[in-house]
Amino acid sequence: MPSDGLWRILRIGTVGLFVAAVGAGLVAGESWLWVAVEWSPPAYARFYSIGGFDAAATAGLLMAALVKAALLWLILRTPVPGALDRGEKALRRLLYLAVAYDLVLWNPIEMFPGAAGAAFQLALWAAIDVLYLLVIRWRSRVLRAAAGAVFAVELAGMAGDLLGELGLPGLGPGGVAGLVLMLGGVAAAVVTVAGQRRDGRWSRGTQAAGWLSAGVCALVVRLNFVSGGISGGTSAMPVMMDAVGLVSIVWMAATAREMPADGRPADLSPARRRAIRVAVVAVVTLPIIALIHPEQTPHLTYTGGSTDCYDRPSFGDLKPAERDATFLCLARSTQGGAPPMFPDSLSDQQILAYGRALCRTRDRDERKAILTRAGSARSAWGPDPWDLVYVCPEIIGVTQPELLRSTAETEAAEASYVAEQNAKCRDPWPRTKGVVQATATYFLFVDGDPGYLVHDPDDEAADEAAERATDKAYHDSALLGVAGSAVLVGHLDDVSDLCLTVKAFRTAPPRRTAGWDQVTEVPIVSRGGTLTVPEMGEGGEVGAGAPMPNLAIAGKGRYRLRVYVRAGDAGEEHLVVVFPGASRKRLRLKR
Question: Which residue in 213, 223, 216, 167 sits closest to 191, CA to CA?
Fold first, then answer.
């Protein structure tokens, strides 16, 4: 090891150079100040502060510089002299190598392929952990075994990180592997400090640094995996956390420094112990205090980019505590590119208050005034009742009680409605039974629905045929648009639903046009052995309200499709008859 004189020169020179660099960076500009304090390229600064450093970020850098200077002074203390065996010498050198890596070597190593740093860290700490087990006098087999288990978990996390860098399957999802690595670091610090205490050669200051290192690691876990990140709403926070992270390096350097068994320094005086305790408490609590936002800073449960409320949950499925969160998500949603109801600059409490005020408005002008006052970009639109129901169900539910239902209640109500509508439809040919047949209500779109299809869904060109049939129905102004395996059947009146009966026969049935307004017969082909009418799917709004049979009873081939249509006071009624036939003529049997 270098002599005491060289250590003192290195210590004074390094800390003095660091302080001089910080002073020069303060004069030269924020990029140089970043390089001096963080020891990383200026490009990293733009990641933390895209628009340049504000006053808080600059103050954070200066505070971090003071903390780093003090911790560097502690890291570079002269090693305690004394005899060391081979294992202790190896452990001291590896610990100083880990200190050098964390201070300066990490940057040049990052210039190598991505896996180089992870591989170096894994190899280095595998050796350190093994030597910890051999060098530290644990004085307990249970504690040594616990330390071995904890070190194994820590190394498993590092191995997972290495596998991820190599593009190989990891030990779990990236977030899980990262959490395992951090928790392993906390546990390893705790068990190592416990071993140092039982060993007896390390001072209370070194042990305090170890406990503080474990506390800093636990704080990082808390910030990353519970609070959602270390930023804390300001670019100064990551800088301060980086400076506080040097505590772990202080602990490693102190562990290496006090390695000799016969060279333990004298215990500190009571006054210095109290000062160290105060410093430890300050370093642990100040970052937490810095995370506490002032009252005027909005607390955001969701932002405009949140995706949690895209699948709108039913009111009845939510617990009371979940309803406010759902409204907040919907109020800030930018789904479909539309502006949010309320901007992200408003806190959760403000948005909830505005939402409840909107529920009590009596006309559109009042609602527009409230949204304008709130800074809404869509004040002219007004809120939707299916959004407001989450914050004032007692008001919205009076006029629209269906919005209070749960998913099960909504499905039951829809099924009951469909069954009720189906019951209103009757078979117009009750005495003429088809090979297969069905009667149901066919639900259409309220506005602009051209009609319904009789088609072969198994045809490879089914979509193209349906599109051509729709085009022909529009362009020819005909009730039926025919295109190979698809026929679009239109409707006489502007209706939202109609009664539909379908029947399939082996031969052509009698024409029986009396009582019908229009009767038309056209060709249709089944290439896949199926001819049917679309059904209303789960959660759908369009289609037949009951299962529809396969009308291609003779399998693949050509068929004739006869459509009967009439409109009356009870609504519009259709009868669709299908039977085998090779004719390609279009017959208007009644106009």
Answer: 213
